[in-house]
Write a structure and sequence with these properties.
Strand order of the largest sheet: 5-6-1-13-14-12-10-11
Bound molecules: zinc ion
Largest sheet: 8 strands, mixed
Shape: globular
CATH topology of the largest domain: Collagenase (Catalytic Domain)
CATH class of the largest domain: Alpha Beta
Amino acid sequence: MFRPLLLGTLLPTLCQALTVSPNAISEALSHADLVADIHVTALQAKPHSERFATFEATAEIESVARGKENLERTSIVIEGLGGEISDRGVIYSGIPRPYREHRYHAHLKVLENGHYSIAGFEEGLKDLSPSRSFTRNRTDGSNGEGVGAFLFWDDSFFPLPYYLSAPSFKGRIEFQDAIDASFKTWRDVQNIRIEFQPMGCSISQRNENDGLNHVILVTDAWSFGDPQIIAITRNFYIAGDSEKSGMILDSDILLNAVNHQFTTTDEAGKNDVQNIVTHEVGHFLGLGHEVAPEDSDATMYAKAVPNELKKRILKDNDLGGIRSAYAGTGSKQSWSGSHCDLSIPSSCLAVHDSQGPMWIFGVALFWLFSMWVGRRLFLLD
Ligand SMILES: [Zn+2]
């Protein structure tokens, strides 16, 4: 059902997060084949490459709200992305993962093999007894449910470097300041340790665990499933039970310019770059989506519409989440922002190289890895 990368690697697996329009979610929910309260009785991780994991959850249907009533008290199998392979874990924030012995109100789509997938992003799998802490992602699932370690950047990574992918932003020089403003919004929160190092541009358009945190404007071949997704952030992290569990190793932000338009000047019908990227930087830092208490004005609220600006400004729940993860006083430097000429991609060959061999490693990966080939899946493939 899930297509693996063409080349496996020994790299950590990943976390993804997304922003979608409200319409995309409601449409997906409306197309569910089965709406039911379910009880997950078994959960199995099924690696399908060294970088990706899928799950198969066995669930008993307790009651059917929409669909075949004769399914009540029968068992079904739900497939999806996410899971852990040895000490590496994978979360797709916004794409929920069920837990054993949890009960859910589920929206499900039937698959060709008779199994089910979850419809409607996080809205499609509502824990009937949710527990969470702010909006932080855990290694064992999205939005703080479960008991896994929270995702976090270790202090040793500060200041967190990030690069703009120059080839992808070519000709969109105005995006640079908007993206920098998004990162700066989070580092400017009082009494937190977060500091970023804007590294300028790089020649890479890849989103791999290459030690380079990238912001990429995807302008052709959106290979992350549903075209309604406006942006995704992918975090590679350490799984398992060690004290390092949850440590983020690499984070990349991808803007879907294939199916959506972006603006820095509030052009009608386009998505404000700073609005969207501020949300994604929250994921970059390990936050999940705003759920409960739900504040639709929060930066980490999962839904966004064109010309929206409110995510530029962090709200109480955003601040609570980020302070719970990074409270303290780190060393701050004077903010200089990114400096690269996005109109001249070749200038980016002089990219900063603070991470030494990892950068070279990243370039090697650029050539070694083939693209993630798209194929129908419920959200991502
Ligand atoms: Zn999101």
